[in-house]
Amino acid sequence: MLAASTQTITHLLIRLLFDLTRESEKITSHMSVNKAVEYVNTHYGEKITITDLAHVVCLSPSHFTRIFKSEIGCSPTDYIMKTRLDMAKRMLRNGDTPVTTIALECGFNSSSYFSHCFLRAFNTSPSQFKKSMQTA
After folding, report:
1. pTM for the complete prediction?
2. Residue 101 to residues 6, 61, 73, 83, 135: CA-CA distances in angstroms?
3. Contact status, residue 109 vs residue 81, Cβ threshold 8 Å
4. Domains of the chain
5. Which of 65, 70, 6, 2 is nearest to 36 (CA)?
């Protein structure tokens, strides 16, 4: 228990130091959910399934999904998508990386699917968002 608490505190400090906190993140009473959140935050660019996450925290997929949704307030799939889009938004804001490269680095299979998801989430295309950040 002490090791898990130490790890949680360490992750919080790292997030604060590098300004990686997001309002959707919260520390829960379930260490398995915290572990899954950390896994998503570090592997967002890879293919992640509910089965993968459940395996990481040693729970069945259905039980994991139920606990995750009750603690975080959204499904694991929605959380993965939100994490990918938040990271993409940060990358679009901070650099000259092409939109297609950002899409692939954030775990999207194609730039068109990335654009569709980004537009749905933020009411602007990734290209328009990037241009607005460059002119600001």
Report:
1. 0.78
2. 35, 31, 30, 17, 21
3. no
4. 82-135 (1.10.10.60)
5. 65
Task: Pick the closest to residue 103 from 130, 84, 125, 121 (CA basis).
Answer: 84
* Dist. CA 28–CA 17, nearest whole Å: 21
- Whole-Å CA distances, 51 to 45, 57, 76, 128: 17, 10, 10, 35
Q: Which residues of 73-96 are buried (b: 16+ CB within 10 A; e: fewer)?
A: eeebeebbbbbbbbbbbebbeeee
- Tell me how many degrees the CA angle 109-110-116 measures, rounded to the nearest 5: 110
Q: Say how far apart CA 51 and CA 40 lie, in whole Å.
A: 13
Tens of pLDDT, residues 31-90: 889 999 999 999 999 999 999 999 999 999 999 999 999 999 999 999 999 999 999 999
d(CA 108, CA 114): 6
Task: Look at the block and give the residue holding tokens 């959204």.
Answer: 74
Q: Which of 22, 38, 41 is nearest to 30 (CA)?
A: 38
Return the structure tokens found at 103.
């899409």
CB 55 within 8 A of CB 11: no
